[in-house]
């Protein structure tokens, strides 16, 4: 059975849209986009389109590749201080002459729509309320939408990135799953992935997960978005694996739309948080 | 073979002592101890004794069980502002009328000797420099002292606490181990623990880990400190498991002394960090 991220995101977005309509003002996101990376532009535009459709306000602040760090600092600071701004998103990657860690840290973590700020990552670590990174959050929303049980399941994650693998592992543990994190240094990977009730591929290698790595009846989540011969391909060999999985996400229209939806949900949550504080 | 935490801590402490001697002033730790919990008093005293032996300065600020939150806030604030204070430790648990989260957060994370501050937990999550919680840090120091390889090993951790299980899992992943986190909701626990090259018991149940749960030749780390019939007992049934393990920590004199040593190492690191900043 296909876990349809496109359809699920549409349903959840529709619900979100209704909630947004009832707010006193539109939640507002400021995106800072530096340079001319085509992938970043595409991604930023999809965020803009999505949020606009949901009745949210999004501004793209496009800065030149050669921008001075001080200018970025000033912009972020002004957004931090502006209580009409609910979310700030610094689109990565940024040019190398800029200090990414320092700029990310400068964003008020109460406006950190990406959930990448050290404070938000610490809050996740402590199982406290905070903004969760969009991709792991979107995956949980998708599983919940299909009522897939998580408690007591053995989740095996391939990949240990800060934006997917690691936060996702913590979110699964907090939902009472048993979690194994694997990566490029893992020995006997297949032995581990074959034990997974829920298998998550988030390593960025096209069609890496093959049929022999998957237990019959497993739930398979494919986070990969790889461009091969101008076509989007996941980290899972879908044609091979789909017949033996109980549920599987396609690429595209799987995790991708859920990530964008989770981001919009984060902005909504930031709006509510800010409103409570004023 | 026994992983002798007492002996290892003595060796590492001796090295630390020599480094401390060369500093311009003694690293200074302020411990805040509220109320009369006997276990807390014992623990604080062992920290005091250890640090004094290493040439560090430790003050215990004992406050009454009924202390007002404002008084604790004032004390923490004064230590935050005092650049002669390198580390601040709020001994847990604290009375229920005090807001633990807020007080822990109030401690300057650059003086957070316990590594419990949200910022330090976030820094660990991001694999960045920061203060690591003492027990996981002590475990890594012990394994390293015995030159036990970590990369590519399958580590299975029983327990998902914020101060041991979770930070330890991240520290092992950062050292390129494959990590499985198990807990009270894990099904077929034995099947998982039997796969461990390194098995860590940190759940707080006396003699929980029995021989049938351990692979022959595994490294077994026992974090448990349970008092049974007025005797300290670990989470591992030592007599049963020791004969099949390649390495095993005893209780007492295993992880315990390493935790205290790691705390002193943290204070030393905080001193250096502070000095760099002035």
From TrEMBL, chains A, B:
UniProt keyword annotations, A-Z: Amino-acid biosynthesis, Histidine biosynthesis, Hydrolase, Methionine biosynthesis, Multifunctional enzyme, NADP, One-carbon metabolism, Oxidoreductase, Purine biosynthesis
Cite the annotated pathway: One-carbon metabolism; tetrahydrofolate interconversion
Question: Which Gene3D superfamilies did the record assign?
Answer: Leucine Dehydrogenase, chain A, domain 1, NAD(P)-binding Rossmann-like Domain
Please tell me whether the keyword Metal-binding is annotated for this protein.
no
Q: Which residues form the Tetrahydrofolate dehydrogenase/cyclohydrolase catalytic domain?
A: 3-114
Q: Record's Pfam families? A: THF_DHG_CYH, THF_DHG_CYH_C
Per UniProt, residues of the Tetrahydrofolate dehydrogenase/cyclohydrolase NAD(P)-binding domain are 133-271
GO terms in the biological process aspect are: L-histidine biosynthetic process; methionine biosynthetic process; purine nucleotide biosynthetic process; tetrahydrofolate interconversion
Q: Which family does it belong to?
A: Belongs to the tetrahydrofolate dehydrogenase/cyclohydrolase family.
Q: Its quaternary structure?
A: Homodimer.
What protein name does the entry list? Bifunctional protein FolD
To which species is this protein native?
Answer: Acholeplasma oculi
């Amino acid at each position: 059975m296909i876990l349809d991220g496109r359809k699920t995101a549409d349903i959840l977005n529709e619900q979100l849209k209704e909630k947004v309509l009832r707010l006193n003002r539109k939640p507002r996101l400021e995106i800072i986009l530096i340079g001319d990376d085509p992938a970043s532009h595409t991604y930023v535009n999809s965020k803009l389109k999505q949020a606009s459709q949901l009745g949210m306000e999004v501004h793209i602040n496009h800065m030149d590749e050669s921008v001075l760090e001080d200018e970025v600092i000033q912009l972020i600071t002004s957004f931090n201080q502006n209580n009409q701004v609910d979310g700030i998103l610094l689109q990565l990657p940024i040019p190398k002459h800029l200090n990414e860690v320092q700029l990310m840290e400068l964003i008020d973590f109460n406006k950190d729509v990406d959930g990448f700020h050290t404070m938000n990552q610490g809050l996740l670590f402590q199982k406290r309320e905070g903004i969760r990174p969009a991709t792991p959050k979107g995956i949980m929303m998708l599983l919940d939408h299909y009522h897939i049980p998580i408690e007591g399941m053995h989740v095996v994650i391939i990949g240990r990135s800060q934006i997917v693998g690691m936060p996702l592992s913590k979110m699964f543990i907090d939902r009472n799953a048993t979690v194994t994190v694997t990566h490029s240094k893992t020995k006997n990977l297949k032995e581990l992935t074959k034990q997974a009730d829920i298998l998550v591929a988030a390593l960025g290698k096209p069609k890496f997960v093959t049929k022999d790595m998957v237990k019959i009846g497993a739930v398979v989540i494919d986070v990969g978005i790889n461009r091969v011969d101008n076509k989007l391909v996941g980290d899972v060999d879908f044609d091979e694996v789909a017949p033996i999985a109980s549920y599987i996400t396609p690429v595209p229209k799987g995790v991708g739309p859920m990530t964008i939806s989770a981001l919009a949900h984060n902005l909504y949550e930031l709006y509510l948080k800010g409103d409570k504080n004023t």
